[in-house]
Structure formats: structure tokens, C-alpha cells
Amino acid sequence: MGSLLPIGFAAPWVLTAFVALPVLWWLLRTTPPQPAYVKFPPLRLLLSLHNKEETPQHTPWWLILLRLLLAAILIVAMAGPVWKPLDIAEPKAGPLWVIVDNGWDASADWDRQIRMAEMLVEGASQNNRTVMLVTTADGPAQPMRLSSAQEVADQLRALSPRGWQAARSELLPALQKQAAQSPPGAILWFSSPLEEPSTTSFARGLANIARATDVQERAFLIYRSDTPVYALKHLQNSAGAMTTTILRHPAPLSETLTVRAYDRKQRVIAEQTVELEPRQNSAQISLELPSELRNDITKLSILGKASSGSTVLVDEKWRRRKLGLFAGGFADRSQPLLSPLYYLERALSPFADLPPAKTTDISTAVSDYFDKGISVLVLAEVGTLPKSTEAEIASWVSKGGTLVRFAGPQLPEKQDSLIPVALRMGERKLGGSLSWKEPQALKSFSPNSPFRAISLPNDVTVNRQVLAEPTADLPDRTWASLEDGTPLVTAKKHGNGTIVFFHVTPDTKWSNLPLSGGFVDMLRAITSISSTAVLPPQNETDGPASASALPLLKVLNGYGKLIDTSVNHQPILERDFANTHPSRETPPGLYGSPEAARALNLIEDDDTLVPLDLSALSMATTLEYPSEKPLDLRGWFFSIAILLALLDTLALLWLSGKLRSNRVTASATFLLITTSLILTSTDKVWAQNSAEDFALDASLDTRLAYVITGSPEVDEISRAGLFGLTRLLTDRTALEPETPIGLDLQKHELAFFPIIYWPIDANMQLPGPQAMSRIGAYMRNGGTILFDTRDAYGPSGSNSQNKQKLQQLLQGLDIPSLEPVPHDHVLTKTFYILDEFPGRYNESPMWVQASASSSDGSRPVRAGDGVSPIMISGNDLAAAWAIDPEGNYLYPTIPADSNQREMAARVGINILMYTMTGNYKADQVHIPALLERIGQ
Fold first, then answer.
1. What is the pTM of this model?
2. pLDDT tens across 630-641, in order?
3. What is the residue range of 730's domain?
4. Which one of 373, 440, 663, 785 has the largest count of C-beta atoms within 10 Å of its C-beta?
């Protein structure tokens, strides 16, 4: 495509026709226009005779200029002018290679990337060229073949960014093979911003292919994205907060980022903002919440920057557990360093909550711990357990609890059922005058234990321990062993829970294990396998920790959303899960079972965002993605040419004298003006004024609607409020409405909408009689109008101008009797249980159609769906729902209360569910079955 400043031409050779303009000028100048023909009487003709000879008149200069301009514009139009044309490869003969980065980092600029690829492939289709499409995140197994441009365009439209990092270097052998069979004529690479973690440079390999196949610089284009990429890593759930680190690249400007935490139902639990300075590429976010709320978090994501890299899935590993600690001797607390709980508290407190025991009575203390919902119970140097306490602990473990016991002098000769292996009586002392051998060091961790990912500490020695009786299942129940093969930690499954036994004390009397960092890692690993919720008992199984495979349940796509997997990915062995890196074979997402899913996140703690290195591609042309789509100007130039042709026709009529008739003049002028309006009017304006297009928009998708009052401020609040309510419905319910619509009551059809929000403004004009008749018909046929006077906060009370305007409006409608929403109304329980109906304010009641009570006091079900045709509030509901495109609320509640904001959101959802589902929850027939179902 030829280019001239910001204008390019699809057929620049046509511009050579400009050399013919001087010849055209000479022809037009020497050819006179058609002479004027006027009928005169014979006498007039004789009187006007002249004897001198007259020469032909030349064409006027302005008519010559008009026709030259018309010819020039036609030449430009036929040359195919394009405003801000694309830089398109200029290949030699050969196919076109289109390489698309579709890893997670491409999601930030995906729309521009695919739009550019589609436009360039469309250009290839006009030249009947074959195209090969290669996606860098799908590996060398993808089919690499030449196809038609139309087929590749269809494939591009079906693409979406993957949830893992693109592995470009894996494609080089297949590309080299394809280049040997069919050398490319041009190469287009639509790259993402980040480099892959590989020692092989894809850019250098691609340059070698281009050099070997003689691809020139103008035929080797790389479109590089400059849109920042964001990521989250290093999630920690500490004693007071959940923290994570934000990464971004590039970081040229200052900006404010918001991290949101979601629960299992994708409801927002908390959010935190952070300010990033120019060239600052990382920051830490801290969500300070009670541990109970933090345990409900299932996902963290950066608001408005969603991708699989900026999303962290939270599983049981990150839940903060409650642990109960109980020691056999509380008297040692007066000397902390001699207390068996001293080392346990300091090892566990960074990642667990440790509620104190209220009493030294083990039965009372254990029962109190269970009431607090602990996940792990640690018994240090506890000897004989009361039978009732032993049975209570055994029942708790079988439901999913984890019991950790430590040896000590108090172990009884007669062992209870809460020790995983049979023990030898007496203690084994090492390193003394009458001892067995020297102090022993740790030798290994079992691959079936939760310690398998821990580096073996080499500073641990054991001086004394309790030995286990050798049995056939002892190796399977051993999690950690000493150098001589004797077990240090043993465990067994008991129902859904686990019993773990350390063969040493929790202090330094028998070993230096409590002084080692490995002690903290071992306790953390045990805590991580415990459950935060007690599960119903299942079949009891003994043996080692499960080594079963974990199948992929949900995959995290490039936009940070969990979706069903469409490819049969290989499961991950449970013992290998901690060391598994996300990739194409093991994508980020949820693995295992729905009841106990394991999260595999894309960004690991030591990962960084490495920018793409294109220094090896000096032979290629590197371009930025255009900020706007090229505009084809041919239609505009042809339109101007038609206008100039009409002007030329009028000029000829005027010169020939045929415009003397007023009728002809008026008709020609009308034709010119009409044609000009048709040519200059855009399709978009006609579409906006088309009733058919409005009907399609309103009926094909569910949309919320508001009445346009004529006040820009009020209408913008209504639009932003219903936009926010649309987001709430999408996030919390199965309903997914499209963007809201503003209604002009004079011309728009109302029947498409189940509910219409009508904000009252004192300065708005009342609808005319015809519009009021249509409103009344809408309400009688089942529609609901929510009137909002927006004046609940203020001294005016019932005499406000908005209320007066509403009274004037309702005088023209057939309105039923109204009452404040009763406590047993369907509106109070259609989705959430509500006692009040706040918006931005919480001073006004919600009024609905009154319903008379029956003789037994119950409220009868009305005919139809039982939905009130009118609702009235003064709490400014739309302002409470209003958000900007980034999801930030625009107006504070009065008073400023986050709970009031949440209640306003629930009010909106209840209203929508009420108007769309009717009175089904008022049906008393199902109440006994529902109560029986929930066990009441």
C-alpha cells in the first residue's frame, strides 16, 4: 500500500492519471458551453442582427476549475485512499506466516492484537495468498499448514488468550521444518510484552529462519504491545492480614490499583488500593481482616486488570487454621523456656491462630477448643487421656480433624487408640554412658508425607526418643526417619482425619529439633493438610498419605476466569503437586475434587516480569499496535465527486438559460440539498433513530431501563446506577443483563422491560396524555415502575418539590392503594432476607400495592404474578448502586456505612428478582417440604 503522510492508497498507480489534467484543462477551455436558446418574435430577431462576425465563447474559468476538481477527486477515489493506513508486509512470492502470541500476558492487549491480525489477513485474502497461522501458547503439536486467508480469519476470531505463558522456543524446530518445505514470503509476529522463561531465544531463531529464506525487512514485521501487564505473587496469610505483591511492566506512569478478594460465590469480601509511582514495578497489598473472613477468600484479583497472572486462587493451603495447644504440665509456664508449649507457640503463630486454653482440665479444654472450630489439636507430653475425652477426640478426628501428639515422660504403659503405631515401653537414650550409639541425625522424609517438599535439615540431632514396635505397616506410617532407620514422626489416617505422633518432646530436652527451621516447616506442612471444616465421617482407612492423581477441575483462562476445561490434561500426582510448575500440560486452575480442590497459580514466588527482548531481530521492522482503526476514505471521495457533478449540472443549466423557470430552479435546488443530506448522513444516526433497532436491542437481551428526565446529572446517575445493578446481578445471580437503556416515554416502547426506574426531578416535564396512556397500559399489563423521589435526606420532608412533582404525575394514572412493605411481603425474601430498603439514604420506606389480609391473618396471593405495578422510594437507590467503568462507587452513602451499601445492593437484587419471578415464594404449599429439607 502506498503512503503519503497519514493517508495511504490501495492502488497508488492510479494517481498517475493526474498527468492528464493539463490536457483535460485545454479541452475544457476550448470547448464552449451549450449556447442559451431563447424564443424571440421575428421583429426582435431582426433588430438584434449585427453585421460583425462573432467568435465562439470560451468556457468560464470557474466551470473549468470545478470540472478539474471533479476529475482529481475521482482519481483519488479510484486510488483507494485510507486514513492512517497500516504498515503491511511487502513480500516476495510466497505464503504469509502469521505468528500470534496467545499466552496470558497477551490478554492485556488482545483486542487490538487480534483486530490487527484480522485486518492484515483480510488484505492477504484480497491478493489470494495462502496463510499459515501459528499460536505460541499451543505448542508444536498444533497443525502448521497453509490455509486460505478466509479460513485463517475464522480461526483468529475463535482464538482467546491461554492461562499459561507462551513457550515460543518450542515452536522453532517445527517452523524450521515448515520453512524448508515452503519458504515464507512474509512473516508477521503479533507479540505480547513478556519474555518466556527459556534459554533459547525465539527471536534469534525466527531471525535465522527469515535470513535463510531471504525474507526482507519490509516483509518481516513485528507488532509489539506497549500495554502494561500486571501480576500477583507471594501470597501469605499471616497473623493479622493476608498479603500479596503486585507486579507490573512496563511502569512509566503513576496509577492506582485495587485488589479485590472474592468468596466461593464470587462476592467481594474486601478490597485494598495501592498507589504506584512512576517506574515503580512492584508493591505490597495487605488485607487486614479477621481470620474467619480470610478463610472465606477463594480468589484475589486486580480490579480492571484481570488475567491469569493477576489472579491468585486460594485453596486450603492458604486458609488460616485455628490450632488448640494443650500441655501436660502448666506449672512450667512460670519458666517459659522450660515449657513444652514455648517452642510450639513460636513455631505455629506465624501461620495459625492459637486461642488460649481456659483451664488446665483437659476434658474441659478440649471441648472448648472443639466449640471454637479448631482444625488441629496439639497435645504436648499428655499421658493418660480420660475415656470420655479420648472418645471425643477420636470422633472429632474421624470427621476431618488433625491430632498432633508429642512424646514425653508421661506416656502410659497402656497405650490409647490415639497413637498411630505400637510403641516400645521405655525410652531410648542416645549418647549417654549406658546408651545406644551416638545421637542420631535426620536421614529422610517419606515421599508419601507432607514433608516431601521440605529440604532435609542437617542440623537436627536426637538424644532420646520413643521407639516404635516393628510391624509390617510401620514403613507406610513413617513420615520422617533417623539415620539408623528408626522413625521420628509417624502418622495414620483415622476416618477423614489424621493422627500424627512425634517420637520426641516439643522442647529441647530430647532433641534440638525445636531449635531448627525444619521444625517450623514440618508443623506448617501438617497444618496445611488439615481441613478448615469438619467433614462427615467416611470409611476409615489406614496407611500413608494419599498418592493419588489430582485431575484438572477448572482451568484459569487468560482473562483470570475459571472455566471448564475442553482438553484432556494430564492429572498431577498429589505428592508432586507442590513442585509442579504451571504450563501447557498442567495449566493454572483447580485440581482434585470439588470438596477439596487444590489451586495451582501461574505466578510463583520467585517469578518476575521479564520484558520481551527483540534485540536479535535487527533485520525486522518493529511497530506498535495502532491506537485506531484505519479509515477507508473512498466513500467520502465518491460522495464529494457526486456533489461536484450535481453542481456541474446546475451550472450547465444556468449557462444555457434553463434555470429561468422558478419551478425548475426549485426542483434542482431541492434535489441538490436532499442528495447532500443523504450522502453526508451516517448509518449510525439513522440506526439510533430507528424504532426497529431499539426493539432489537431491548428484546434480544435482558436490559434494565430508566426514564430520561432531561436533566443530564440525574440521567447520568440513573445510567451509572443501573449499570452497577447490572454488575451486581451478573456477579451474584444467574441473570446476566446487558447495558441499561434510557427511555424516551414519548416514542419508546415500554413492554420490553419488566421494571422501569423513574427518578423524579422537580424540573422535568410531565409526559403528554398519549404517553400517560401508554404508561397506564404498561402497568396494567404486568409492568412495574419504581419511582424514586431521591429526597429522603433533608429538612423538606413530605413537602419537597420532588414529592409534589410525583403527586402531579400520579394524578394522571390509575394507582392502587399503597402501603409500606409489610414484614411478610415477598419483596423481603425473594433473594435476600430484608427488614428495610435503604439506598444512598435510609430514611424513606418502600411503598408497594396494598393487599388486604384474609380472615386468618394471612396475606392472599393476588391474581397474575402478584407483583406490585408501582413501587415508591425516596432513598436515591440509583446513587447507591452507581459505579464507574472500573467498578468504583461514585457516591457515598449517608451516613457513610459500608453495610448500608451492601444492603442497598441486596435491595436492588430483591427488586429485580421480585419483578421477574413474581410471588412464587409466597406460595405456602411448599413451606413444609422446605422446612423438612433444611432439617427444621
1. 0.53
2. 666 777 888 888
3. 691-926
4. 440
